[in-house]
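Help needed: design a sequence for this.
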């Protein structure tokens, strides 16, 4: 929970601090969905804060309105996906059915019904927004085929694939990485792609939707003669900001089928396969590099790592020594 003593999420991406309701609205809307704002107490000045950033196709916006609070009216989102993660319980009313609820955790805005929400004035709310088309593409990458009918999240009966807590854990992790990245000169494209896919995957797994049953099906088996093609493609493209979905698409299978091949062939996940190839190339780069104050950091960044501790841990696990020890040995000691 965010308190006055702690920084809210995405503090490194502050867009505006304002008492003007129109300024707050116009700052939030490009990162979220269309909406109207009304002050609950028109005579009480707001104390608003908006932090916002885009990660690939996914927008993250943290907003706190302050003052006496606001009423947020949203039309049907239709082909867009928007989810609110309020820090404190938030009142919700569905305008057509007049159903009322108190939301906490993950509230998906309705695709086909206008809504009215009353977020807590001071504790704030995170909004995650993207298009259902991007989520459908990510889903198709996992299934290895297009899914029909259209992907919809709101008012879907039945459980999700995993507990909904995966969504909050993921967005908090992503926000932490993003805030940390600004202090290190920005986010490497490999890391940005990984964060985007983490958010999309958490949404598909942690929220019920019209494709949940398809996502839960056991994938069809794929001939393992593709293993060589998979390995060759990863070796040829490891330096690019690729992810697991890209590997699967390149060889014409779904992510789940790719997972089965990697597990049966090498005893690893596709992520571990890609990480291993990148670490192997990082070791070559360290052996051939001239030692300098940023050599290890630059090599780690090129391998998609933001946190040096994680790079060092994975490197030592694979090679039995630290990146610095490899670097100090110098050229020609592979």
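Sure. Designed sequence:
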């Amino acid at each position: 929970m965010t308190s006055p003593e702690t920084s809210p999420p995405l503090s490194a991406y502050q867009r505006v601090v304002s008492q003007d309701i129109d300024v707050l609205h116009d700052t939030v809307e490009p990162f979220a969905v269309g909406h109207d704002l009304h002050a609950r107490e028109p005579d009480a000045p707001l104390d608003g804060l908006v932090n916002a950033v885009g990660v690939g196709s996914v927008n993250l916006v943290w907003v706190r309105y302050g003052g006496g609070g606001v009423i947020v009216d949203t039309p049907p989102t239709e082909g867009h996906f928007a989810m609110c993660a309020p820090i404190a319980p938030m009142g919700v009313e569905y305008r057509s059915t007049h159903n009322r609820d108190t939301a906490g955790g993950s509230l998906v805005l309705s695709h086909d019904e206008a809504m009215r929400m009353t977020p807590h004035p001071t504790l704030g709310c995170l909004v995650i927004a993207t298009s259902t088309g991007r989520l459908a593409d990510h889903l198709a990458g996992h299934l290895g085929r297009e899914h029909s009918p259209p992907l919809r999240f709101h008012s879907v009966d039945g459980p999700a694939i995993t507990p909904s807590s995966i969504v909050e854990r993921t967005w908090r992790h992503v926000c932490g990485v993003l805030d940390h990245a600004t202090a290190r000169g920005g986010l490497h494209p490999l890391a940005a792609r990984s964060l985007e896919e983490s958010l999309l995957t958490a949404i598909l797994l942690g929220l019920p939707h019209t494709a949940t049953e398809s996502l839960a099906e056991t994938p069809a088996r794929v001939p393992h003669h593709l293993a060589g093609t998979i390995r060759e493609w990863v070796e040829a493209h490891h330096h690019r900001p690729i992810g697991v979905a890209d590997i699967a698409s390149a060889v014409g299978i779904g992510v789940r089928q790719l997972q089965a091949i990697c597990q049966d062939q090498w005893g690893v996940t596709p992520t571990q396969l890609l990480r291993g190839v990148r670490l192997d190339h990082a070791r070559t780069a360290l052996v051939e590099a001239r030692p300098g104050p940023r050599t290890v950091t630059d090599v780690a960044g090129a391998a998609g790592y933001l946190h040096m501790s994680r790079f060092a841990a994975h490197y030592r696990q694979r090679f039995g020594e630290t990146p610095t020890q490899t670097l100090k040995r110098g050229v020609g000691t592979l």
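The longest strand covers residues 48-55.
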